[in-house]
Amino acid sequence: MIRRLRAYRVYHRLLGVSLSVILLISAVTGVALALKKNIDVLQPPTQKGSSKDLADWLPVEQLALIATQAFQQQFPDKLENEIDRMDIRPSKGIVKVLLKKGWWEVQVDGTSGEVLSIARRHSDWIEALHDGSIVSDWFKLGIMNILGIGLIAMIISGLWLWYGPKKIRRMKRR
Has residue 151 got a pLDDT over 80? Predict the structure, then answer.
């Protein structure tokens, strides 16, 4: 029993050391992501458009064209940057156009087509680092599962390392 408990300590320590780097990255980036709406450097503040009524808005295709042209005018060296997704915010009266390369965001007024903001979304690369997708989708799937299973093993072995000595003391008393 004592020999097994000592072996668990070794396994627990080795597992803890090997998971610590991944866990530290995940924890630090998780804190940053929790604060992204409160820190303008992480994610540009959401602007307000002139109308919340979608009937007054320009067509989505036109808003996309306005955003890409504005980005190309401001950054002519980054001409080959396609739209990744568009985040339509009727409650704010804007469309956030997110570009594939460089984690850029262009905010456009849905009604007037006025460009309200062009800025980097650092929260996007922090999220990619947080979930491992910055390396690849395979890495994301593999490393996050390893981290999850490793944490479960750490909890089980930690509970045993806490309970095991108590059990040994009880056995010695008898």
Answer: yes
